[in-house]
Amino acid sequence: MRSSRLFGAFLLVIWLTVAILAVQLGADYYRMPIAERPFTEAHELLKPSGLVGHGYGIAGMLMMLIGVMLYSSRKRISFLANAGNLGNWLQFHIFLCTLGPFLVLLHTTFKFGGIVSIAFWSMAVVVASGVFGRYVFARIPKAMDGSFRGLQEITAQGRELEAEIRATGAVPEGQLEAVLAGPALRSPRGTIDALALAVRGDLAARLHLVRSSRTLSRASVAPDVKRRVLGLLRNRLALEQQSRLLLPFQRLFSYWHILHLPLAIVLLIVTLVHVSVAFMFGYVWIF
Hints:
It is a single chain. The chain is mainly α and 287 residues long. It folds into 2 domains: 2-147 and 252-280, no CATH class; 159-247. Helices cover 76% and strands 0% of the residues. Helix 6 (151-168) runs antiparallel to helix 9 (223-280). The two termini are 42 Å apart.
C-alpha cells in the first residue's frame, strides 16, 4: 500500500512539473488574442504545426495510445497477470491518459474548429469518463492482485480492524462504541443513489475522523498510538461504506466498462482522421 502511494505521488510530481513548465513556456502566447498570435516570435514554435506545438500533439497522442494499450494488455494477456500490482498499472494508465490530453490541449493552442473540435470534445468525454470510472473503481475493495473482493471477506476484515482498535486500549471506554460506530449508513436504493451516498459517506467519514482525533487528544493518547488508531479507524470506515455500496458499485463499474472502451475507440478514429487530414494538407512535418 505504501509503495503504491509513493508511486502515485511520484507520477503526480512528474505530471505537475511537465504541466507547469509547458504552461510557463507559452503563457503569454496562449493569453493573446488569436488574431495577434501570428505576429509574435513564439508563433512559429507554439502554433499547432510548429516545432513545440506539433510536438505536444504527437507526445499527447502517443501517451494516450500507450496508456490504453499497456493497461488493456495487463488485464487481458495471461502472462502479464503477475507483472506488478494492478493498481500501479491503473495509476500509470491515468497518468498517461490525463497528461496526454493536457498536451493535446496545448497543441490546439485553445483554438477549436472543424475536426479539431470533434477530436477535442471526444477526448474530453473520454477523460471525464475515465475520472468517473476511477472514482467508482477506488470504492470497490480489491485483493492484492487487483481482483474484486466479496462481501464476506470485507466483513471479516472489518471485524479484524475493530478488534485491533479495541486491543490498543487508546480510546476511552465510555466513548469506544461511539468511535467504532462511525456515521450511520443506509442501504442504497439504486446506482444513482449509491453515488450520492458515497459522496455523503466520504464527507461524514472525514468528520467522524476529526471528532475521533479530538477524543484521543483529550484522552492524552500518545501521538504514535493516535496515528495508528486513526489509520485503523479510517480503513474500517472505508470497509463499512464499501460493504454497503459493493453491489451497486460493481454493477455501475460494469456499465462504465462497457461504455468507456467504445468512447476510447471513437476518440482513436477521430484522432486518426485528424492526423490524416493534417498530412493531406501539409500541416504535419516528419522528423
